[in-house]
Amino acid sequence: MKNEIVKKRILLTGASGTVGFEALQHLVENPDYEITVFDVKTRKSIKKLAPFQSRVEIVYGDIGNQEEVQKVTQNKDAVIHLAAIIPPLADINPELAYRVNVQGTENLIRGLEIGSPDCHLIFSSSVSVYGDRINNPEIKVTDALKPSPGDQYGETKVLCETLIQNSNLSWTIFRLAAIMGNHKMSKLMFHMPLKTPIEICTPKDAGRAFANAAGYLKKLENQIFNLGGGENCVIVYESFLDKMFDRFGLGKANFPRRAFAEKNFHCGILKDGDVLDTIIHFREQNLEDYFEMVSQQIHPLQRKITFLFRSIIKKWLLSKSEPYRAHIKGNARELNQFFNQSEYEAREILV
């Protein structure tokens, strides 16, 4: 009689999110995994996760609630922790970001230390932990962690990393590059300096990375990695915006230069990002794949309508720009937050 194969028991948090949903789709392809999903119960999450009900255990709950987390952290071999409040909501509601990101991670650690002490925790951190790198955009894991002023999300990720490294669990931390998924245009687009070199990673590749990581736990144990798409996914932010606006039917992103901040954001080029891909082999897409995906998601009629109203739409977007409002009002505190003050004062205050 053959021995029955013991499946690896994996807990995935945040499965209804952009990267989490991609990770789930990759994980369910492996017959050797027994998957439990823990997610907040919303109309969106119920709809997205419904097709997986027959293949995974779905538990809805609040990661900020220790008792609810305790129930799903029993007898697990690996946890892929992707649940988090991200910008712009993290900046709008920092209390919620702290409760979900930091306290939620702490609850998860406590639950695993009691119910699954031999479990391996894989955590999704962010390039935002490195802070403003506009003047030195080449980033390595060994660089200092210094989130930009006011970056609530980056600060929560630094706190989470500390909690994880001080835990009794085996762990791995991935610091993600800019994950370009189904982002809505918001005021956050104006926080990044136009000249910022950015390395993106598609949601599909990022999800594949977390799913693949479950098969390489020993090689990843107690290490931190930068996770990005590689050299074929690097672009200057100004060019990225122009390409995106063109695909949506908005023409060029021809906003006043003062609509964009000059400092205090993040992103850059992950110079040691190849290390992770060498181990878990997750990169399959590049920038062109991403832009093609965006184009396919936009209906031709929608693009034509957007083109007709492009001036109104861009005027509305400009009204959301905090750096532009600070420039118009001459607010000294906000000007210092978004602009290089000495350079700003040396120029004529003109749009």
TrEMBL record:
Q: Where is the NAD-dependent epimerase/dehydratase domain?
A: 10-192
EC assignment: the record states 5.1.3.2
**Which GO molecular function terms does the record list?**
UDP-glucose 4-epimerase activity
What cofactor does this protein call for? NAD(+)
Q: Which residues form a coiled coil?
A: none
Q: Which UniProt keywords apply?
A: Carbohydrate metabolism, Galactose metabolism, Isomerase, NAD
GO annotations under biological process?
galactose metabolic process
The protein's name is UDP-glucose 4-epimerase
Q: Which reaction does it catalyse?
A: UDP-alpha-D-glucose = UDP-alpha-D-galactose
What family does this belong to? Belongs to the NAD(P)-dependent epimerase/dehydratase family.
